Here is the input.
Amino acid sequence: DWTPGNFIEESVQRIRAQVGDGRVICALSGGVDSTVAAMLVARAVGEQLTCVFVDHGLLRLNEAEQVMAMLRHHLPARVIKVDAQTRFLAALEGVTDPEEKRRIIGHEFVRVFEETARQLGSFQFLAQGTLYPDVIESAGVGGSAAKIKTHHNVGGLPEDMQFELVEPLRWLFKDEVREVGIALGLPPEVVYRQPFPGPGLAVRILGPVTTEALHTLQLADAIVREEVESAGLNRDVWQYFAVLTPLKTVGVQGDYRTYGNVVAIRAVTSEDGMTADWARLPYGVLERMSTRIVNEVPGVNRVVYDITSKPPGTIEWE
Ligand code: XMP
Here is the structure.
């Protein structure tokens, strides 16, 4: 019988057998998959594991600090944080094409990870939080093989950097990973965290990614999350976030005419992210989001709600 407890025991044995006294490196994102994978490896071989968290500067408000605090508290392994914001922003300067943004971010990510790994010595193993659906998807099995958006992980490392993969979650579905996470003692806000794309806020800023745009979007996005969470709807809604558009419209605030950006709210229900429906958020929640965003986020004077399902829309705007 599959239970999280049995699974943890067996994984620990299997990882020990695979790794022996070798060294393991792992890229962490703060998401449930990479965190659970790292925790299993840490249980199995403790000191032999080094984790790398690349802060590309495209995370949500205060997220890098929160992720590091969570990891320090729950993950008994060495965690290195790499501050690479400047580098990613420079590489993204002036770039507007969504796939180009993804390509640049994926490429920089691999380079930063590679440089960091080299500095830390030599590693024989790379641990990854690959799930069963990822395995099926990359094998091209099951339905639509068409790749709509390129999703990045630590593929594409240089030829001379060959790792043997440690993938303890390879046979699990997302709900099983969550059960394992709970059994390992991770808090619910980590285990039930909404999916967040690897390229982060870069694909939620339409147009060029600048420090100012990032700051604006972080503030608006934090309001959307706070309101969904304080209404107790976070477990019912698959993803909920803000998108910053380069569209400017006229408004009036106090006695003044304003000319500011449009922020879109995106909230969807879904089973697996493959198809999705726009979430019927209560008007009161939408109203609080709108009022707060216009009042609290400088440069934004209009808020719209995205009522497009997937398909034909995608969940992200880019
Ligand atoms: P779309 O926008 O294609 O998104 O409907 C489906 C799910 O995938 C996430 N997503 C990404 N995740 N890298 C990722 O790691 C990406 O480039 C990427 N693009 C979309 C999206 O947030 C949703 O959960």
